[in-house]
């Protein structure tokens, strides 16, 4: 009789982690909100509330700026004014980047624990790389990462699997050996499409939806919790 096949826990044998930025490591909504309203003022549009902006985060800056313009303008005018708005947003954001952003609990401790356990780390964010790199640097997190990809680093951004698959190639690992950790369905969809296991945190920005609606291999309270869970699964292998 053939031996019973026990299902492999998805975190078994994980050797690297891809960590999302906005809503996972750093609470950046106040920076994004401030830059959006400075941009809107340039275009003679009134301010928007932070709650509205929070639900729009996650699909990259181009989509965010288009969605924000669409609050007041029709489709044709959005396209007409997009370039000016996008330039203004990036300029204002660069000037205040990090001023109103804070670490979520146990972010540095979690990254340190993952690294101590021998995992290689990559950051994959939809934030433009020109904003993501200095922000990670300023917040003392960039040294954890061997690789950092922004939303404009590659041809496609999350939820497309391309940036995740690029990390797997960089690390010479199979997607099943690389766990993605993020705050939104955008991260989970990219991970599923790449074939990576995925853990989600419940405290970030998930397009106004509960994280419980998102397909994931586990919800972790913090990155430290993620590290402990991965350690548990990996020690079960030996
Ligand atoms: O800038 C965004 O749209 C969100 O970026 P994230 O991928 O780090 O959550
Ligand atoms: Mg995010």
Automatic annotation (TrEMBL):
EC number: 3.1.3.18
Cofactor: Mg(2+)
Alphabetized InterPro entries for the sequence: HAD-like_hydrolase_sf (IPR050155), HAD-like_sf (IPR036412), HAD-SF_hydro_IA (IPR006439), HAD_2 (IPR041492), HAD_sf (IPR023214), PGP-like_dom2 (IPR023198), PGPase_prok (IPR037512)
BP GO annotations: DNA repair; glycolate biosynthetic process; reductive pentose-phosphate cycle
Active-site residues annotated for this sequence: 20 (nucleophile)
Catalytic activity annotation: 2-phosphoglycolate + H2O = glycolate + phosphate
Primary enzyme class: hydrolase
Functional summary from the UniProt entry: Specifically catalyzes the dephosphorylation of 2-phosphoglycolate. Is involved in the dissimilation of the intracellular 2-phosphoglycolate formed during the DNA repair of 3'-phosphoglycolate ends, a major class of DNA lesions induced by oxidative stress.
Record protein name field: Phosphoglycolate phosphatase
Protein's organism: Pseudoduganella ginsengisoli
């Amino acid at each position: 009789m053939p031996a019973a096949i026990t299902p492999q826990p998805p975190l078994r044998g994980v050797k690297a982690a891809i960590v999302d930025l906005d809503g996972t490591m750093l609470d950046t909504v106040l920076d994004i909100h401030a830059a959006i309203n400075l941009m809107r003022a340039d275009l003679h549009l009134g301010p928007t509330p932070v709650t509205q902006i929070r639900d729009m985060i996650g699909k990259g800056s181009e989509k965010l700026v288009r969605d924000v313009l669409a609050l007041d303008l029709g489709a044709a005018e959005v396209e007409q004014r997009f370039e000016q708005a996008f330039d203004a947003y990036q300029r204002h954001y660069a000037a205040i980047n990090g001023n109103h952003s804070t670490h979520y609990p146990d972010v540095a401790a979690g990254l340190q624990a993952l690294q101590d356990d021998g995992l290689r780390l990559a950051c994959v964010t939809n934030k433009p790389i020109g904003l993501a790199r200095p922000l990670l640097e300023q917040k003392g997190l960039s040294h954890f990462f061997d690789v950092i990809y922004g939303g404009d680093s590659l041809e496609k951004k999350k939820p497309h699997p391309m940036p995740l698959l690029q990390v797997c190639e960089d690390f010479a690992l199979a997607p099943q050996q690389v766990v993605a950790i993020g705050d939104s369905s955008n991260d989970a969809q990219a991970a599923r499409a790449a074939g990576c296991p995925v853990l989600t945190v419940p405290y970030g920005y998930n397009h106004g939806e509960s994280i419980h609606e998102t397909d994931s291999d586990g919800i972790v309270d913090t990155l430290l919790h993620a590290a402990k869970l991965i350690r548990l699964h990996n020690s079960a292998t030996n």
